[in-house]
Amino acid sequence: MEKITSFTIDHTRLFPGVYVSRKDKVGAETVTTFDLRFTKPNTEPAMENAAMHTIEHLAATYLRNDEKWKERVLYFGPMGCRTGFYLLLKGDLESKDIQKLLISCFSFIGGFEGDIPGATAHDCGNFRDMNLPVAKWWSIKYLEEVLEKLSFENTHYPA
Q1: Distance (Å, rounded) from C-alpha 144 to C-alpha 23?
Q2: Residue 58 near residue 116, CB atoms below 8 Å
Q3: Is 57 known as a binding-site position?
Q4: Does the N-terminal or the C-terminal CB of the chain have fewer CB atoms within 10 Å?
């Protein structure tokens, strides 16, 4: 089998960032897949499952309720390697196009208090696996170290 595109990225040279992973045509629409990388792969520790699960619930809820973007959000979810998340949006987009959205989203998570949306036995298959304090920590770290300082190096995959 052919190696899929995401396995051709040199993960030894990849830093936390907001990368365009791929663009796919679905009918007349373009779908842009973003790689929201929180950690430096194979160097920094992977994110904890419970924190990732919490971020998934909060970010998916936030993004699907954003007045400007909600009709374009197709998916938000974790990477299996636990170094970040994928965000799929309708449209032919670049990292800078979603910077304000992501700043708003991760600011929301960083300051979130209260019950995590969908964190009940009725709504989620593993609702007890949540860690809001660590999710907030990761969100603030990503906000301050990545989203507020986007540059060519953390928006374009290494050559």
Answers
A1: 27
A2: yes
A3: yes
A4: N
Query: Can you give the length of the chain in residues?
Result: 159
- Local structure of residue 86 (DSSP, 8 states): E
Instruction: Give mean pLDDT, residues 123-133.
Output: 97
Please provide the CATH number assigned to the domain covering 5-154.
3.30.1360.80
Secondary structure (3-state) at 156: coil
DSSP letters, 30-74, are EEEEEEEE-S-TTTSPPPPHHHHHHHHHHHHHHHTT-TTTTTTEE
pLDDT higher than threshold 90 for residue 4: no
Taking 90 as the threshold, does the pLDDT of residue 159 lie above it? no
Percentage of residues in the chain having pLDDT higher than 90: 94
Residue 11 annotated as binding site: no
Give the mean model confidence (pLDDT) for residues 74-85. Answer: 97
pTM of the model: 0.95
Give the angle subtended at the CA of 10 by the CAs of 6 and 14, to the nearest 5°: 95
Ligand-binding annotation for 122, yes or no, is no
